[in-house]
Structures are given as C-alpha cells and as structure tokens.
Amino acid sequence: MDHPHFLQTRQDVVAIVTFNRPELRNAFNLGMWAGLKEIMDTLSADDTLRCVVLRGAGGHFCAGADISSFAEERASRAAEDRYADMLHESMQSIRLCRHPVVALIEGACVGGGAGIATMCDFRVGAEGLKFGITARNLGIWYPYAEIDPIIQMVGTGVAAEILIEGRIFNGREAYEKGLLSRLAPDAAVEQEALGLARRISAGSPLSARFHKAALRKLRGPLPLTALEEREANGFVETEDFHNATRAFLAKQQPRFAGR
C-alpha cells in the first residue's frame, strides 16, 4: 500500500523510510501514525533486509504531532483513546522491528518526532538539530511506554529535564546527555548515518536480530496495569489541554490554570 506522506527506497539490504510532509516539518497526523506502523511491520517481515533508516524530508526529522488536527482527532476521551492506541502501536512497531533501526536526525526532532527517535536502536544527529519533547507546553501527558526508553537511555534526571523542564537540546547537548549515538556536522550527518547502517548490515543479520530482541526482553514488561496506562490519556479531559491547543494555533502563549 502506498502512503502519500512516506517515501521508501533501498540501498542494497538497507531500507530508507523518509517522512515526506516538509511543509509541516513532517508533523504526523493520525493517518501517518497508522501508515508508519504498516510500513514498519512490512519491513520487519522482510528477511532480505538487515537495517532500516528513518529520516525526514526538507531538512527536518519530525516536528511531532500535527496540532492543527487535534480538534478532529483528539477532541474527546474516546477519540484520544483511539489516537493513543494507534500512537502506541506505531511507536512500538519501531521498537519491535526485527531489524536494527537507525534514526538520521537533522533539524526539528521534537514531540512525537523525538518519541520516534528514542524508539530506534541508534540515533545519528546533526549538530544543528533541536531535540525535545514539548508535551508540557500543550498540557499533554506523555505515555508510560514511550517514557521508558528515555529512562533506559539517559536515566530519570535527564528525563525530568526533557519532560518537566521542557528542555530543547541542540546536537552537542543531546549527544552529551546520551540521547544520540553519534554526532556529526550538519553536512555529514547523512553520510554518518548511512555508513552506520552499512556497518550494521555487514554483520550477521541473525545475530543483530537476536541481540535487539535480547535487549528488549531483558528490560522485561512494564509494571503497569491497563487502567494505569489509560490514565495517561486523561489530559484530553482538561481545560489546560484544549486552551493550550487553541493558543498554539493562534500563535499565543498558553496560560495554564491546572484544571
């Protein structure tokens, strides 16, 4: 199936998936989350592949979720439950992909874009990138399963900087915090990321698949009930979320009342 906002190419045993919505810095709507899951599931089942590279068109990785679509896609608790389920499945399709996944990051890598990157096995970033999760600016509660890989990578201290303080890191800061596997000059980031994908592909694919699965299995399941996971969707019932969304679209500063 063709997906209008994704481009798929191959370089021998490496699949390259490009988010292709450059007019919105590759911001994702619900259809794109569904499309990414379908693509990743299909690539995961392809035994001829040895590595997947994710990148964005137009000089940006991904600016996160498309806020202009929230009024339609995230307007009620029932709608948010559906949205959150698809977001979760899409994110996890990267983590569960049998092949190693490399994020080639330049420009904006924020919100859901940073979420996509942290689901990858490797993150190669440009010095000029902007990396952060801006959930707090919209009164959104970032879900448990997507917080987990951040804690696994950088610990709760840096996770607090990202989620509570709302820090936006440049490439050097992101690398020093442990959020990037490699740091490269802006002009060299593509070469570095594709070189990494080729080095991965030169090894045993069965070994790579085993080790990727082993790292996930050793983490074990999250100690959460289904009800606890659903609690993360409760922000959609707050005044703060809806007021902040309207403020963002009006290019105004949100004011949070805590309700």
Polypeptide structure, described:
It is a single chain. This protein is an alpha/beta fold. The protein has a single domain (6-188, 200-206), classed as 2-enoyl-CoA Hydratase, Chain A, domain 1 (Alpha-Beta Complex), CATH 3.90.226. Helices cover 47% and strands 14% of the residues. It is built from ten helices and eight strands. The protein has helices at 30-44, 70-73, 77-95, 112-119, 144-165, 171-177, 189-202, 205-219, 226-231, 239-249; strands at 6-11, 14-19, 51-56, 101-105, 108-110, 122-126, 130-132, 182-184. The chain has a six-stranded mixed β-sheet with strand order 1-2-3-4-6-8, with helices on both faces. α1 (30-44) links the parallel β2 and β3. The model has no long low-confidence stretch (mean pLDDT 96).
